[in-house]
Design goal:
The structure is a homodimer.
Chain A (H helix, E strand, L loop, with lengths): L2 E5 L3 H12 L5 E5 L3 H9 L5 E2 L3 H5 L4 E4 L6 H8 L8 E4 L5 H11 L6 E2 L1 E3 L20 E4 L7 H13 L3 E4 L2 H27 L4 H6 L3 H6 L7 H10 L1 H23 L3 H22 L2
Parallel strand pairs in A: 1-2, 1-4, 2-3, 4-5, 5-6, 8-9
Antiparallel strand pairs in A: 7-8
Helix pairs in contact in A: 4-5, 7-11
Chain lengths: ~290, ~290
């Protein structure tokens, strides 16, 4: 890779650019962002070599184009890129939902372009914007690629190598399985944290409530500081997986409500013990 | 203070002992723990000078007795202490619920002892046991005291000074207001995290689910690693405040479910923005 195009220079796009430059994967980085101030900052910080006026201009002549826009912007960005689509260019994205992207590709192109490899780095932070990007954001993190039957194996192999050079651990997955897994581990927890924080923010006595909240609430609610546009788009794009999970969650929560209301001490102890064991399994697996 | 008695040498009891010794507030520390191994460890680590065979023995001759047992153990521990109750001794506790404690004092003694100052340090960690204690656990943390009309103002003043010497910021509060506030900022989030982690721990494909969970889930679920006995007792003791909050939460979550199901993008954006602003208010207040 020599010429890199970045469409959307937020936390992730900026981090891809910084990491690619650090690891010598990009001699020339062109970028586009809908937010002109953010785009100008990207150039002044040296994250980008050039600011493009359109997505097509950022992609022109690139060896690799990374789409790092909120997933709701994918249809319009892909439509803008379509007239300039180049067989010699590789395309990938960093979106948190994958089935909707595959459907968008089909809708925009009428087929799945063989040189677009859908991807999702499991890395992020509650900060946003170009300045929040970090060259080491993907170091040791997992990246899921969800190639379709139509995707060129050579394209998938090249994108795999690209992420590995950025320090990531790359694994392939079916788009729908990706969306189901991420709905459970990421989308549902974000919704739960947004709802709790919003609920507390509407309570009487909320100054005292926030004043006496401790580290547990700080950690629990961290993801409620995430970008509202990004999460609006994820909820819309993956609603078919998130809604049934919310229903499962509500059922489980109401069952616990009954245990608490009836002071069912031993059942509560069992449930909290199971939860604690499950989290220990998560810690063990995430350290592998 | 010279002689300190600690009933329950877990994370909090151990931290009180370590901090009191560090700050020169205790020349002699006696302690009791139902778990004989934990009690022996407390002596071998030097957290305690002496292991007592009963709560009464740990309290005998102490200037200050700190009860640091799960709130469900309060009735039995207070009943055991009652025959040895000394007017010259100050008593306090570190329990996470306060109204139930006041009711237990009334039930055990037939009145509220004037030398018992109910308290709650807003500090903790998901670890438990004597070894997890830290002398700096209360440094800069808030401690809520909930004295009753019957509580001696001199006792409240002495306990306030004790916690201030340990680095804490002390504030008084009505017991019921304490329980309402903590239900919102601590008890409800713990229940939500336990339920989510337990739900994920029962899913098919859970190895992949935990393997691809990221930092957001790690932070969100940290409190689900908390001690099941402690949280069973808190849920039972404060059920009257927690259950209506769970109902409020379910209503709010189901409203968001509808927004997601109907892909109501702008309403979702508004809600996530409000939540993000609320968390920023929390961050601002918690840094004061």
């Amino acid at each position: 890779m020599n010429r890199l195009g970045i469409i959307g220079v937020g936390l992730l796009g900026s981090s891809v650019a910084r990491a690619a430059r650090l690891h010598g994967l990009a001699g020339d980085i062109s970028g586009f962002d809908r937010d002109a101030d953010n785009l100008a900052t990207a150039v002044s910080l040296g994250v980008l070599d050039r600011a493009a006026n359109t997505p097509g201009e950022a992609a022109a002549g690139a060896d690799l184009v990374v789409l790092a826009v909120p997933v709701g912007a994918m249809p319009s960005v892909l439509s803008e890129l379509k007239p300039y689509w180049a067989e010699s260019t590789l395309y990938t994205d960093v979106g948190s939902t994958k089935q909707a992207l595959v459907e968008t590709l089909q809708a925009v192109f009428g087929y799945i372009p063989s040189n677009f490899v859908p991807g999702h780095p499991i890395a992020g932070a509650e900060q946003s914007g170009v300045a929040a990007g970090r060259a080491d954001l993907f170091d040791g993190k997992r990246v899921i690629l969800t190639p379709c039957p139509e995707t060129s194996p050579a394209a998938t192999a090249a994108i795999t190598t690209f992420w590995q050079h950025l320090g990531a651990i790359v694994a392939p997955m079916e788009p729908l399985r990706h969306d189901r897994i991420l709905a459970a581990t990421s989308h549902l927890p974000h919704v739960l944290a947004f709802v709790l924080t919003d609920l507390l923010g509407h309570m009487d006595d909320q100054d005292a409530i926030f004043q006496y909240a401790a580290g547990g609430f700080r950690d629990f609610s961290r993801i409620a500081s995430s970008d509202p546009t990004m999460w609006r788009d994820i909820c819309v794009a993956n609603h078919a997986r998130i809604v049934p999970l919310i229903d499962d969650y509500c059922r489980a929560l109401l069952a616990v409500r009954e245990l608490i209301a009836h002071e069912s001490a031993s059942e509560l102890h069992d449930l909290f013990s199971h939860a604690r064991s499950a989290r220990q399994r998560f810690l063990n697996l995430s350290q592998q």
